[in-house]
Amino acid sequence: MATVLYITAHPLDSQSSFSLAVGEEFIEAYRQANPADEVIHLDLYKENIPQIDADVLHGWGKIRSGSSFDQLSDAEKSKVARHEAIVDQFVAADKYVYVSPMWNFSIPPVLKAYTDATSVAGKTFRYTKNGPVGLLSGKKALHIQASGSVYSEGPLAPVEMGYSYLKKVLQFYGIQSIEAIFVEGTASLEQAPAIKEKAIAHAKEVAKRF
Length: 210
Prior knowledge:
Blueprint lengths: L2 E6 L9 H16 L4 E6 L10 H11 L9 H19 L2 E7 L7 H10 L6 E4 L2 E4 L5 E8 L15 H10 L4 E8 L7 H18 L1
Helix pairs in contact: 1-6, 2-3
């Protein structure tokens, strides 16, 4: 049995979001193909994802200097503990499905905060004399990304920093099996329904082998 983190980063619902609509169809097809697997849905807009702020940095600094967890302030304890829970859950999973829109060429801020929380030395990667090494080899990931224009290829490809960013981060963790489903060109109202249906059909096929 595998554990799948279904990570969504959109404040609306699947009736209003192309990425969520495709994501829901994917995860339903995945469940049908893998009934024994555990799927954990993380709606990042409903989760507590602390940013790396002064409390977090001070808390980490105190612990590195030899202080015990109990010596941290209440705010430091809360945020540091939450960060640890996030990365531990991430490390324990076998597969990751990210679902997000492209905003300003990249990912929503809450997904960036989640990615920051999972990028922890000794957990998802480690430093060696030859440079950093990922610790999550053998796992796999998928990113479903919706955008108004086409960014996966063509003249706008150089400014695509959503999937390309996540891919680099996941490769840094040692994950090499990474796929993407692009729901692109949805700003064209006439073509949007067909684009959505094509992406859903693709997602269902990917789900059978993911």
